[in-house]
From TrEMBL:
WD repeats lie at residues 40-74, 90-132, 134-175. It comes from Malurus elegans. Belongs to the WD repeat coronin family. This is Coronin. Keywords: Repeat, WD repeat. Residues 2-32 form the DUF1899 domain.
Length: 213
C-alpha cells in the first residue's frame, strides 16, 4: 500500500531521487504540502509498503526494494529536517521486501514478505528474526493477512494458491488452488468470523469476489 493512516497521522510513499522515502503528515493538516516538508528517508531504494503499529501511534514500519525493513519513531511535532535514523533495521531478505504487517495483538511482532518467497516474523524490540517460513511458497507472494487474534496467516501467491498458515506450527493448515481462474493477482483477507474473503478475476478477466470457509 502506498498510504497508511492511524488516529494521529497519514503516511504516503513518495518518489525521491536516488532513494526511498515517505512523508508523514498530521491528520489535522489540510491544504497544500510545502515542497520542503521533511521526509522519512533511510532506505537506499524505493519504499514498497508502510504500516503503522497498532499499539503505538508514533511507530511505523517501512519495507523497501533495498531488501530491508525499517521501524521509525515519528515525533508528535513536525520535525525541521528529514528523519534519517530508524529505531531498528531488520535484515534477512535477499530480495526486495514488498509486504509488511504488524501482528494485531502481540506487541513488537512484525511480519515481512519478500520477493525471495520468504515470510519472516521479527521481534522488533530486539531486531532478531523469530521465524522464517521459507518453503511454503513456490513463487511471488501477492499478499499476507493476519486473522483477528494473530494466530493464523492467509497468503496469496503467484502459483494461484491461497494458503492458511499456522505460524507457531510452521504448517500450512488449509490450501485452495485457483480460487479464481484468471491469471491476474489474487488477494485474500480474514473476515471477523474466520472465513476468508478473496478478490480475483475469471478466465475472461471479469472481477470476482469469493467467500470461503
Amino acid at each position: 500500500s502506498f498510504c497508511a493512516v492511524n488516529p494521529k497521522f497519514v503516511a504516503i510513499i513518495v518518489e525521491s531521487g536516488g532513494g526511498g522515502a515517505f512523508i508523514v503528515l498530521p491528520l489535522a493538516k489540510t491544504g497544500r504540502v510545502d515542497k520542503n516538508h521533511p521526509l522519512v528517508t533511510g532506505h537506499t531504494a524505493p519504499v514498497l509498503d508502510i504500516d503503522w503499529c497498532p499499539h503505538n501511534d508514533n511507530v511505523i514500519a517501512s519495507a523497501s526494494e533495498d531488501t530491508t525493513v525499517m521501524v521509525w519513531q515519528i515525533p508528535d511535532y513536525v520535525p525541521v529536517r528529514n528523519i534519517t535514523e530508524p529505531v531498528v533495521t531488520l535484515e534477512g531478505h535477499s530480495k526486495r521486501v514488498s509486504i509488511i504487517s504488524w501482528h494485531p495483538t502481540a506487541r513488537n511482532v512484525l511480519l515481512s514478505a519478500g520477493c525471495d518467497n520468504l515470510v519472516i516474523l521479527w521481534n522488533v524490540g530486539t531486531g532478531e528474526m523469530l521465524l522464517a517460513l521459507d518453503d511454503m511458497h513456490t513463487d511471488l507472494i501477492y499478499n499476507v493477512g493476519w486473522n483477528r487474534n494473530g494466530s493464523l496467516l492467509v497468503t496469496t501467491c503467484k502459483d494461484k494458491k491461497v494458503r492458511v498458515i499456522d505460524p507457531r506450527k510452521q504448517q500450512i493448515i488449509a490450501e485452495k488452488t485457483k480460487p479464481h481462474d484468471g491469471t491476474r493477482p489474487i488477494r485474500a483477507i480474514f473476515v471477523a468470523d474466520g472465513k476468508i474473503f478473496t478478490t480475483g478475476f475469471s478466465r475472461m478477466s471479469e472481477r470476482q469476489l469469493g467467500l470461503w470457509d
